[in-house]
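[User]
Protein folding is very new to me. Any chance you could explain this protein sequence and its structure tokens? I have pasted everything here:
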Amino acid sequence: MASALEKADSGSFHRRSDDEKVKADALEYAPLDGIADPDAGLSEEERAAHDRTLLWKLDLKLIPWLSFLYLISFLDRTNIGNAKIDGLQEDLGMTNGQYNATLSIFFISYSVFEPLTNVLLKKLRPSIFLPLIMLMWGICMTTMGLVHNFSGLMAARWWLGVAEAGLFPGVNYYLSCWYKRSEFGIRAAIFFSAAAIAGSFGGLLAAAIAQMDGIGGKPGWAWIFILEGLATILVGVVSYWMVHDFPDEAKFLSPDDRARVIRRLRADQQSSAEHESFKMTYFWSSVKDWKTWAFAVIYMGCDGSLYAFSLFLPTIINQLGYKSTTANLLSVPPYVAAAIMTVFIGWLADRTRQRGLCNIGVSFLGIAGFSMLLGSSKPGVQYAGTFLGAIGIYPCIANTISWASNNVEGVYKRGVTLGFVIGWGNLNGVVASNIYRGKDKPKFTLGHAVVLAYLATFLLGGSIVTRVMLAWENKKRQRGDRDAWIEGKGQQEIEMLGDRRPDFIYTL
């Protein structure tokens, strides 16, 4: 979209009137790098019809398969919780501390490598990078079913974290390069709802696979890892043909559609679909931006809670008095509720552009749920608390990523920022892995209390502070207080400022 600031003849900048902005919107349809506007001469209604057709094509080509990949990813990292209640810990002779260590080591390697992965994604292309890491983590998953001791499981979990590190930040960054900010939230929510579906599907799948106990001399929990690992390898191979590259190179789009995608992103003050060479300037720009760390704090609040919930839900339900298979099956309904709520909040946040308020409202549900788990000893009340906990955590993951993505512009800066935000959030999986201790059963007071503190302090508190600061900065930009940032700069230099452009208004 044309800048909200125009350079006057004197070389200074002035704030445009609404009429001037309407006229400037016509620049959206200017030729792109010598490519003529494919919709030249069409009415606004006809242009809108082309946009709807294009969005439908993108949704069908991108969202289903990427969501399926994340379902597999989340299933592979959390099925150890299902394996535990089927005898993993006893068969390998592990103490409670050693089991928690196998959870923690995944998050350490996962978090360390996440900030680097989006740069690799951009350089290697999605159609190469994503299938490659899937093959790697599929092999790691399979070997988890072949280990005989604590050391073997630790090694497999470490490399699983390394291999999986590129998927979640990579796909969120990738999708942000296709859609406008007002369209991204619902797609990110549908993509992330696969995690909730994985939770429900994982319980059903684990209950079924565990019946293979004794086949080939392997216990049921080992078959959970082996079969799911082999399935991941197969999907990774197929993904080479199913994952598409960025808009300027995507082969499933015609030249006209590629021009439309790039034009739509430019109209939304984005340049993410276009080529940009990596420079360390973009890395440091992200590191020095307060928004990177503000969103990292918010994300740790929901992500730390997410992993505590997903890794230990079967155990929590098991401690309510249900057997292992029943506990796995009873873990399904809370995840179904979480998936529905995640998609709804994604739609609502896109519609209202109030991502911060959505985070704030949903966090109260999670706080209520864990308060019930902490304060009641009645199985019915505690099970109801798992529902509120699920719907109070899962929607905030996708919404926070969308919120961060909406407010960071620049191809590599956005990729680095999402890597930092998601990496820091996942590092808190180390905490989540160690708060539900065996000696605390059946109430798990420490675990529930820590998750409650995460939700109240980091998710709720962080969302409130960040929203206030973004609103404060928007008011400064709208008053013209930031116009000095672009004095003396040409149009290309102004565009390179990304979200530091004075006309870039933050999403609240």
